[in-house]
Amino acid sequence: MDFGELLKVFLLDLQSIFRYRVSSPDLTLPQILLLSSISSEGTDMSSLSKQMGVDNSTMTRLIGVLIRNDWVEKYKGENDRRVVFVKITSKGEEIRREIDTKINEFGIEIINAIPPEDRNDIREMLTSLHWLLSKQLLRIK
């Protein structure tokens, strides 16, 4: 399997795992990722769009669902009223904690399935891969 194909199946596996292990009937995968990406202090919509790799109109629709469920709220920036921010509500924070707990539990299962002598090497490789992917994203944006 070449590296591109390996990345593709890795992404598909992670998406499937998130869908079945982390999501609930009320949450889609994009909603899970979005709730996990919004900082507690609030995040501007344009940054969220870039981070999620979607255009602003798609982000507006995704955020609309979260607002209707009272998981987030929107507000305008104090310095620039054109900038729209999104902030997690207390109800959204509860869901985010549940998501984080499920992700951490899954992470523990994965790390425990790896032989102890290989764990640090794999963690370092994944950290390096994340760093390389982040650099690629900066070039795209």
TrEMBL record:
This is HTH-type transcriptional regulator MgrA. InterPro entries: HTH_MarR-typ (IPR000835), MarR/SlyA-like (IPR039422), Transc_reg_Sar_Rot_HTH (IPR055166), Tscrpt_reg_MarR-type_CS (IPR023187), WH-like_DNA-bd_sf (IPR036388), WH_DNA-bd_sf (IPR036390). SMART domains: HTH_MARR (SM00347). GO terms for molecular function: DNA binding; DNA-binding transcription factor activity. Residues 1-131 form the HTH marR-type domain. It comes from marine metagenome. One of its GO terms (biological process) is response to stress. Keywords: DNA-binding, Transcription, Transcription regulation, Virulence.
